Amino acid sequence: MIETNREFLTQINDAQSLQDKLKTSDRALFILYDQLNLKVFSQKLLDQKPLLIFVESLKYATAIPHHKQKLVYILSAQRHFAIACYNQGFPVLNLFTQGFHADAIAEFLEQHPQINLTYMQPSEWDTRSQMATLGNKFGDRISMIPNNFFIADVEKFKSKIKKGYRLENFYRELRKQTGYLMADGKPIGGMWNYDKENRKSLPKNISIPQIPIIEPDVITQEVIQLVKNYLPKNFGRLDQFGFAVTRDRALSLAQTFITTRLVNFGAYEDAIKVGEPFLFHSVLSLYLNNGLLLPQELCEMAIAAYEQKLAPLNSVEGFLRQILGWREYIRIYYEAQMPQVRESNYFEFTKDLPQLYWNADTDLLCLKDAVTHVLNYGYSHHIQRLMVLSNFSNLTNTDPRQLNHWFWVAYVDAYEWVELPNVLGMSTFADGGILASKPYVSGGSYINKMSNCCSQCKYDVKQKTGSSACPFNYLYWHFVDQHRDSFLENGRVSLMTNMYEKKTEDEKQAIRESSIHFIMNLKRGYFEYK
Ligand code: SF4
Questions:
Q1: For residue 364, which atom of ligand 1 is closest to its CA?
Q2: Quick one: which atom of ligand 1 is closest to the CA of 470?
């Protein structure tokens, strides 16, 4: 039984045992950091008892200053998974490299010319490109199989991604394809979408079930120490790591969500409460995004809860829409739009990301609360990501590529394929409207409606301009004024331009002055976390 990292590193990487392992099969299977589930590999391949290769890449860990908890999560989950495979009788090899994953694989194949290697297509573009270069060098000895961690077929949907093909079209096709929440070809309940029931603000005294904290075992504790010792200046805090790092634990957290929080997930999915990072959200995306959990099983668990009357349809459909709809849709978008989308910047914003994203040092309470959650957990729920963090970035004319970079660094569930479409496509409109019909911008009143932040904030959400006014208010109208051309083109939001035009010249002048003063005085740039 392997219980510590020392045992893991010695037993799995022992040179003599490697020679024995290489005798058992001439086939190796490289399993990436976000592919931690043998269920998606074919039985035929697994029956060959291939040597399972895992790689710990220093360059991947340091290419950007990932949140410390994200690094602990990725590394500890991978080590736990490697041990689980070893305990199932697979020969396992764990490689460490100063370079990227592909560098370690190249070195291994050079040293062991009798070995043929299979790998599953990486989800992230850079890792995929690096692995692709190995094909030139090793030819037939290396083969790639399709990525099976998603439900939707990339080839079927990729060509549909263009302006006008929205989530709703895609989601309905997927519902029909899977039969999830369908009966006789029609959506159960008669409607595809229950969003109207899912925008409630949080009642004052509602009880929020806590998510169990998973105490780090010896292996995770050692990985925590490793990250603390070698990457102390990376983003985020590491004093309360409580995520699961094994499939069993992740499944039990999924079950807890289904039985305790799914019931209220739908109604309050857009709500924000100061000091409450999780509310009724599942906080399962990190387990989905590295393969510990599979999207089909989560959808089916939620549907079973509906059938057993444990959760209402608006909650279950809302949850399904997130996983079967949104998650699959943005993955297809990533496949269709990479790599050119990385540089997109529709509004041509050039300002650096405000420093508060790195240190939570701000008097704007909604922002302080959201960034504090990110520092503490590498997590904030989706509506804080959209309504607060992305909104503020847009309103302060921040380069969307810097916001994109920040999301990638800061969230434990962030891999490029998932955060890039959300940021450059959905929230900032950087792609010019391929994914979304408008940029996400709003004034303070919507934040006030959906949260309890404003009643405790230094700024007054009712005031429109001036030093005490909520900055979201004047910045919103300033944004409408600055980008009137794009707003006028868009039927959904041209109403806002018309409303702006009805303001008096004095009001417009006050909006301009407050906005320019605020934007000019905002501290920007990277803040090195200590
Ligand atoms: Fe945020 Fe404005 Fe509300 Fe303060 S008043 S919490 S800045 S929306």
A1: 7
A2: 2
Q: Give nearest CA residue, ligand 1 atom 1.
A: 366
Contact in structure between 52 and 38 (CB atoms under 8 Å):
no
Please tell me the number of Cα atoms within 13 Å of 425 on its side-chain side.
Answer: 29
pLDDT at 528: 60
Which structural domain range is residue 191 located in?
A: 154-209+261-337
Tell me whether strands 116-120 and 186-187 are parallel, antiparallel or unpaired: unpaired
pTM over 0.90: yes
User: Looking at ligand 1, which atom is closest to the CA of residue 447?
Assistant: 8
314-369 tens-digit pLDDT: 999 999 999 999 999 999 999 999 999 999 999 999 999 999 999 999 999 999 99
Cα of 499 from ligand 1 centre, angstroms = 22
- Residue 16 inside a domain? The answer is yes
Q: In which residue ranges of the chain is pLDDT below 50? A: 530
- Pair 182, 141 in one domain: no
Q: Which residues line ligand 1 (CB under 6 A)?
A: 364-366, 444, 447-448, 453-454, 457, 459, 461, 470-472
Q: Give, using CA atoms, the residue closest to atom 2 of ligand 1.
A: 470
Q: Does 172 share its domain with 38?
A: no
CATH of the domain at 466: 1.10.579.10
Whole-number pLDDT of residue 492: 65
74 and 171 part of one domain: no
Residue type, position 45, single letter:
L
- Nearest ligand 1 atom to the CA of 454 is 3
- Per-residue confidence (pLDDT) for residue 2, from 0 to 100: 66
- Residue 378 covered by a domain: yes
- Give the residue among 387, 386, 393, 382 at the shortest CA–CA distance from 355: 393
Task: Evaluate whether residue 434 is within a structural domain.
Answer: yes
Q: What are phi and psi of 316, to 5 degrees?
A: -70, -45
Q: Residue with the nearest Cα to atom 3 of ligand 1?
A: 454
Q: How far is the CA of 313 from the centre of ligand 1 (A)?
A: 33
Residue 242 placed within a domain: no
Structure tokens at 78: 């991978």
The two structure tokens encoding residue 300: 């089916």
Same domain? For 290 and 407 the reply is: no
Give 236 Cα–ligand 1 centroid separation in angstroms: 24
Mutate which of 448, 451, 455 for ligand 1 pocket (most atoms within 8 A of beta carbon): 448
The tens digit of pLDDT for each residue in 29-38 reads 999 999 999 9
Tally of structural domains, the chain:
3
**pLDDT at position 261, please?**
96
Contacts of 261 (CB under 8 A, 6+ apart): 209, 280, 281, 282
Sorted by sequence, the CB contacts under 8 Å of residue 460 that are 6+ apart come out as 468, 469, 470
